[in-house]
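User: quick one, fold this
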Amino acid sequence: RRIANSQTMAILMKAFLVDRYAKGAALRFGETSEPELRETDVMVQIHAASVNVLDAKIRDGEFKLILPYRLPLILGNDVAGIVVRVGSKVSRFKPGDEVYARPDKDRIGAFAQFIAMNEADVAMKPKNLTMEEAASIPLVALTAWQVLVERANLQKGQKVLIHAGSGGVGTIAIQLAKYLGAVVATTTSTSNVDLVKSLGADVVIDYKTQNFEEVLKDYDVVLNSLGTDTLEKSLRALKPGGKLISISGPPDPAFAKQNGSGWLLQQVMRLLSFGIRRKSKRHQVSYSFLFMTANGGQLGKITALIEAGVIKPVVDRVFRFEKANEALAYVETGRAKGKVVIALK
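Assistant:
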């Protein structure tokens, strides 16, 4: 709807907002201005958004050092929808295109009716997915891609351990690693053993009955999305020269540099990761932290794999838009299989 004053006419949209950082706080459902469309942007009417653990961490204030947002902030890091307008310099998209994306970290805001994103961060939606399925893909698939393809350079015949195989990143990472020709081990709970096997896991460790670090040896790569305890135990599963890549921290100096952090923040991250970097060195393995970045080109390659049937989305539940707080609470239980999605249409 439009609100007019003497100077401008603002177009308002409904959105879920963070007014202040607070652990476990409810998002505020309200009206806010439609985002500004820059010359290289596409404006997308959102049909579906997915919920990530990252959303809860941002709301709780856990990332305020790394991601200094101005509040109030529209939450949401995954989007699928239809292009309604394009900036003057946009060449790859036109109104009517069905697209999906993980918006740039500085321009999140998928829990809303509209979002403006740089066209470089956007890809055409896979033709064989619904909007809800497509919204479940970008952040977790780009994370898996950037860990396994970009950072680990995973090769055919190598062995990779993917923690939390039934989670959002895990379900996609297992499928991608199998496509790359790796031997895939994963950890999960008893109730999800069949799910991760169906996705292609070769070795399944039920963490309720087994200790993975006592069973797995000589692995080339570990993708960690769990806490410090699991991170340190993972060193025992790697062979000398192996790579321990964590998406749940602690952040390291290389990430601080890449993120453009100032000197002080670089020292903080150096300290935070000092313990695990020292232990990694002792085990003759490398430790690195990966915070995934928006990338429409990589997402386009993922689209091709989805359309070829190599990667399939795993969606646990779909919530209506007005139930976004319930969707976030469900993700925080840690019991979701694959992804949780919010449908706007």
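User: anything notable?
Assistant: Confidence is low (pLDDT under 50) at residues 2-8.
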